[in-house]
Amino acid sequence: MYLCSAMRRNRHILLIACLMTNIAQGQAVRNDTITDRTHQLREVTVTESRRQHEVKSTAPLRILDHEQMLSLGVTDVADALHRMAGVTLRDYGGAGGLKTVSVRGFSAKHTGVSYDGIMLSDCQSGEIDLSRYSLDNVAYLSLVVGDNDDIFIPARNASASAVLNIQTIGMPTGDKNPHLTAQVKAGSFGYVSPFLRYEQNLSETFALSVVGEYTYAENDYPYEVKNVTQVVKDYRKNSRMNTGHGELNFVWTPNAFNRLSGKVYYYDNDRQLPGQVHYYTNVSKETLRDRNAFGQLQYLTHNRSGWSLKWSAKFNWNASIYKDPLTAKNQNDGSYWQREAYTSAAVLYTPSEVWAFDYSLDYGYNNLTSSAERTINNKPYRHTILQSATAKYRSGRLTALARLLYSLYLNDAQMGESARNMRRLSPSVSLSYKLVEDQDLFLRASYKNIFRSPTFNESYYYHMGSTDLLPESTDQYNIGMTYNTQSESCDFQITLDGYYNHVRDMIVAVPYNMFIWTCINVGKVSVLGAELTANATCRLNQENSLQLSGNYSYQQAENRTNPDSPFYGYQIAYMPKHTGSVAIGWENPWVSLSLHGSGVSSRWANNQHYEGTEIYGYWDTGLTAWHTFCWNGQSLEARFDLKNLFDQQYEIVRLYPMPGRSWQVSLKYQL
Hints:
Layout: H1 2-16, E1 31-32, E2 37-38, H2 50-56, E3 61-65, H3 66-71, H4 77-82, E4 87-91, E5 99-103, E6 111-115, E7 118-119, E8 138-145, E9 162-168, E10 179-187, E11 191-201, E12 206-217, E13 222-227, E14 230-235, E15 241-255, E16 258-272, E17 287-302, E18 307-323, E19 334-349, E20 355-370, E21 380-395, E22 398-413, E23 422-434, E24 440-452, H5 456-460, E25 472-486, E26 490-511, E27 517-539, E28 545-559, E29 578-587, E30 592-600, E31 603-604, E32 614-615, E33 618-631, E34 634-643, E35 651-653, E36 656-657, E37 662-670
Parallel strand pairs: 6-9
Antiparallel strand pairs: 1-2, 3-8, 4-5, 6-7, 8-9, 10-11, 10-37, 11-12, 12-15, 13-14, 15-16, 16-17, 17-18, 18-19, 19-20, 20-21, 21-22, 22-23, 23-24, 24-25, 25-26, 26-27, 27-28, 28-29, 29-30, 30-33, 31-32, 33-34, 34-37, 35-36
């Protein structure tokens, strides 16, 4: 039984050797070591392990693959992000609570999210709700801060300060048999979630997969609120979630030099929005229905002379229908529809083993319409043109990368005044140097300049937006040391990075409720920080192994706008100075176990640090147990998760309490 589990784990590790490629599921044609990619036809060529890739990267890179997430007790995307250094998560609690991520003191709008190699977008808010994406269909998550070592990417993938890459599970290889994964989860507070995945090679050149998922949760968890000496106990109300998600994927590989992949995606979430919790009231009737549909294609071709072409295209449609029946005459109701047409062409030239050059050209069109006269009625639209030119050099101990990104945003509106047009040239450079010839000890340094155009909410929202709003401009510096060592019984990796970020005209979003944010232009913000990560795997014998993982982050994100202001030098809202996590997993032939925890220090709910607005720090501990039964090439995995083991009452967003102790069980069958 343990052997079957180990074989499955090793299979995934082989696949993850192709990390940092936007076509990790693809059939391949050549080995481009200069671009950190290994393509595959019907077999995998391993060039380096996940940990080696993290250590060699010229910019900070964090990777969590599917098997590591299992062994370390990761339960969802939010939990996975807690295990990554430098990440600050905003979470409204519960299975369907809005979850957004910011990195190293930047707002969530500076963090891009890529789904199978093509960026997700939200022109209205600029923030991606990560609660939409479960881990059941995810092969790995990676977070890169700065520039990606894989230069063969669309220009949009290089236009953010940090990018979270979500890579779904690839197609089967080696046979034409159907492969089926069926799973059901159940847990506290009315949580139930069935999942189904079917995949098959229909021919030597064509494969497809179908994914379906449904989740229901009442989210009526208990909580406590302290008022001086009095403790008020109540249950979360108006928090039900009812959501479904489906995908259809295909890969066509007519020959060893060409590959076409595609995806059709649909998501529908009909949920209630819990209000803020005050001492003696928890009343809310707000509802929100989110629907998102998109289709995307990606074509890749190579030739023997060192030229490669990657073409990507996507059409995205998103609808948000918000209602608040408690507001007089339903004045707070609003429906929003946004559309995006996007295409990208990237050309890669590798004249030798040490040099690689890439040019990428992207075009995107976004528009937004609203049913509410008092919200966004301008009917704004935007044309975006992005161009990037990148050179990469790798020889011996040195790897160096330089990129120049040109961004052009052309704004207009069908009604009323439009936001200003914006353009910027943004340079970046990064390098990694191996300090010792026969050891994986590296010094890395990087610099990136980037800017963020205001979202449609920030430019056009009634009473909150301004068409004169300036874009945020950022400079980020990083210097670090990385080390990796391997032996027959133990693998160990450690990274240490120090960084400085400077933001001009920063726009800080402070939540009013789950759907509406108040935008404040802080002006200048400086972020000084350090990150430490460590991972170790110890093989005690053929049937027992220990996995240890931990990280710690320090970030001092301060308002540096006006030295005469009484709030000068104050920590920015919702930015903790200290965050960290630790996990230990024991894999064995009987019942594998993982004990893990994550926490943050205290934060402030506003930039002025008013009395009574401090959010206290917390430490959340969890326990996971699992076992895999195998027979005749089939497997059944049983898993039990105990979350918030010590039933700590805490908040991530002020006045939105998180769940206390809860449990979750899952059964997964694979054929």
